[in-house]
Please model this.
Amino acid sequence: MNLRPIFLVAVGALSAAAVSAQQVAVPTIPGLPPAAREAAESVNPEHMRAHVRFLSLDLLEGRGPGTRGDKLAAEYIATQFALNGLEPAGDDGSYFQKVPLYAVHTVENKTSLALTVENAKGGTGSIPLAYGTEIVLKDQTGQASAEIDAPIVFVGYGIHAPEYHWDDYAGVDVKGKIALVIVNEPPSDDEKFFKGKALTYYGRWTYKYEEAARRGAVGVLIIHRTDLASYGWEVVRNSQAIEKSYLEGDPDATLRAAAWIQHDVAQKLFHAAELGDVDSLIDKAGKPGFHAIVLPFRLKGHIESRVRRYISTNVVAKVRGAAAGGNAVLYTAHYDHLGIDPDAKGDGIYNGAADNGTGCGILLEMARAFAQSGQRPPHDMYFAAVTAEEQGLLGSQFLGMHPPVPAGQITLDLNYDMLLPIGVPRSVSLGGAERIDFWPTVQTVAKAFDLALLPDPTPGAGHYYRSDHFSLARVGIPAFSVDQGELFEGHNEAWGRAQDEDYVAHHYHQPSDEFDPKWDFHGNAKLARFGFVLGWLASEQAKPVEWQPGDEFEAARKKSQQ
Model:
């Protein structure tokens, strides 16, 4: 298909919009030169409107990774980078970074699993597991058909955290075995022990898979308990009912059985092993002194999967800074969404206008403002529209594994994801920003922009680990997302909360997340200007931004700087 007429129409819309856009003043901030302030003020809400409108057209078919719509979106973003004078920062002098992926869908009616039991007299028995109601899993290896027969070891929460003097794997070898683990992490009110009530990455189910894989396990069974997980079994069941993608060559995605089991199944296991009540064992596993237990069970069965291999792309560009070397800044936003539901009755296109057309609109307009600034930024600025976020942050994971410059040279990543264009915010949520030594500057700039800083209302939910900035944090790069709060000009917080709740209830991850001509993008422009100033000041610092001492990502940062 010839894309040139489409892009010319979009470019024309941007030019016309530039005439009528309101110029909103950027506050005077120490260290921010006049040219940078002027460039930030040039951020145009109507440009964002045009980008969001195009990216959420039915023409792009929901921007599902590896689809025609995915390629259209990537080409559009690359064209905008080129038109605004940004340099390519992808593969082979292009704007595109190829991301090799494979998708796995467990064929439930062809998958059969059971627990084989060895009793004290050497006899064996078998406990069949009903797929969906008692167990769910994915074969991460990407094999169409596989057999599994491996012993099971109970390793508590499945965590190795030296900074908290915690090692559930002490004295046990899980190579070739199944690790049985508890969802979440050891409970605590002590901020110095797994951050108290706030969830660390050690509590995320993805970490448990990765840690076991690093130790050579062939599978993981996560014990689900609703109060510990903060969600019911149906959430787990539904997440496994759909296709799940993985990165080709990911060393931490090697499990034959990445699985969850119902609490009642675990109860049967421990009773059969004469180990008592599973909840008592869970309590003991959350206290110092716990040791792994080799169980008299094996997981045995046949796993059938539908596997699809495909290539998607991250779109990466650069604005050259005044000085070479470190202190580069990275801006990220995912451009993918959920594609098309072929079984939908009626509209089956998941347009993803808010999620995350809005983040892309901010990314593209900030890139233009930096590229056309009258003064070069202190160091290089990188802009990455990443793919496969909805598949598990895979595009940003690949970017973190293959950054445009070494991770140790990137001083900060600022991520934008799903910012509703409903007005001008007077508050922001910057979960994780307090974990870096750039936090005082963030506070100063937020105050200058009349943005109240809101704490994370649900620290136990682990939201920090569910957006693309996390992929950069885990390789050491100080990173956080810029999210609007609930207070907007002309309204109270209850109004903002109601707008967010309505979107989540009626539009989030649904075909109705479509472009609305009545949307007000001035708030998105304000948050773009806010991020512009933060990035400029971070790049201008004499030393790179660092994690606070003792943070879980401090070790990765030091490693990246060696």
